Amino acid sequence: MSGILTWLILCALAATAVLLPLWLRSADGPLGRGADGDEPERQWQNEKDRLVGELRDLDRAFAEGRIDESIHDRQRAALSADAERALERLRQARASTTAGDTLHVPRRYPVAAAAAAVLLFGVSGGAVMLSARGDIVRGTSPHADGRIPLPAAQASANAAPSAAQGSPQATAQASAQAAAPAAPAGMPTTADGAPDIGAMVQRLEARVQGGEPTVEEMLMLGRSYRALGRTDDAIAVLKRAADREARTDTLFAYGEVLFRDGGEARLDEAAAVFDRLLAQAPRMPEALWYKSLTLVKRHKVDEARGILRDLKGLVVGNQDATRAVGELLAVLDQVGPAMAPRPQSN
Predict the structure, then answer these.
(1) Which tens digit of pLDDT belongs to each residue from 259-307?
(2) How far, in Å, CA of 287 to CA of 221, rounded?
(3) How far apart are CA 301 and CA 320, in angstroms?
(4) Taking a C-beta distance cutoff of 8 angstroms, is the pair 181, 151 a contact?
(5) How far, in Å, CA of 153 to CA of 270, rounded?
(6) FRET pair for 8, CA 20 to 30 Å: which of 28, 205, 275, 330?
(7) CB-based contact 204:230 (threshold 8 Å)
(8) Cβ atoms of residues 2 and 108 within 8 Å
(9) SS in 3 state form for 258-324?
(10) How far apart are CA 303 and CA 294, in angstroms?
């Protein structure tokens, strides 16, 4: 789009600069006589110089006695006749060029200017379209039409979701394989070389349940459970991580899974977790957002509106977040303090 606008601006500037004399009568000025306009005068000057030189030589020869008077008179008469003929030709040339022929009358040429402008835009537009044929088209993947083939492992991973729609386990496995087609050393893999998500989850599950796992391992297992659709297992292991270390990341992961996947029954529990999180990070935008959503779902519109107004000032630099907060505030401003819609979390 920016290229087309640039082309239009350049064409308009070029048309204005080049075709202005055709549109404006005041711009159509006289061009002068040109290099050939005074050609008759130059020819007469050359002829006159020649005749004067010959007359001078003739008078010098007569004075020195090299010719007699009769020869001098004949030659002088002949030179005078040549001078008369040259002068007559000059008069005829001047008479043929009248004052009306040399007077310039300014005119406008709108039809020619319009035709030239259309031609300019057409030719330059065709050139822009031809040059744009080789541009990179954003928004489409070069892998989709086979221009750049994918490795076999990644191609099979990308095909997995379409082959097993409706299976959360298969979808989660295919997504993880597409994101990491090359398995690191020591990671379990499938027959085609892609990471084996099921084996990875089982291995992580054994470490968490059979020993003293780290908080990071519990967070990873909880997120894996959630991706596989095992909501209760995800809530249990993330609660264990939050109880082990009540950090911002553990509390947020636990509160998010309670709100998103726990349903109405766990709203109070999710709100309590976000309260604990906000006690540590009062200006954390994500925690404020989820806290406001728990309040809205429990019909506490005034409290939710106050939190959202504070949150709006914290996400000024994030357009998506600003839009989401503004839209929810607009909805809450239209309802009473006791009733509110059930918003969908982003």
Answers:
(1) 988 778 888 899 999 999 999 999 999 999 999 999 998 888 899 899 9
(2) 22
(3) 22
(4) yes
(5) 40
(6) 28
(7) no
(8) no
(9) HHHHCCHHHHHHHHHHHHHHHHHCCCCHHHHHHHHHHHHHCCCHHHHHHHHHHHHHHCCCCHHHHHH
(10) 10
Burial readout 324-345 (b: 16 or more C-beta within 10 A, e: otherwise): bbeebbeebeeeeeeebeebee
pLDDT score at 272: 92
Q: Angle at Cα 233 formed by Cα 229 and Cα 235, nearest 5°? A: 95
Report the pLDDT value the prediction gives residue 247, as an integer from 0 to 100: 92
CA–CA distance, 179 with 193 (Å, rounded to integer):
14
Tokens 């020819």, residue located: 43
d(CA 41, CA 84): 15
Rounded to the nearest 10°, the torsion over CA 68, 74, 75, 77 is 140
How large is the angle between the packed helices 319-333 and 301-314, nearest 10 degrees? 150
- Number of Cβ within a 10 Å radius of residue 231: 17
Report, in angstroms and rounded to the nearest whole number, the Rg of the chain calculated over CA atoms.
47
Q: How confident is the model at residue 243, as a pLDDT?
A: 92
Q: Which stretch of DSSP H or E encloses residue 80?
A: helix 69-96
Residue (of 87, 8, 1) closest to 48 by Cα position:
87
Long-range contacts of 207-212 (CB under 8 A, 24+ apart): 208/237
Task: Give the E-state strand segments of the chain in sequence order.
Answer: none
Residue segments in the chain with a per-residue pLDDT below the cut of 50: 157, 159-172, 174-184, 338, 340
pLDDT recorded at residue 164: 43
This prediction has a pTM of 0.43
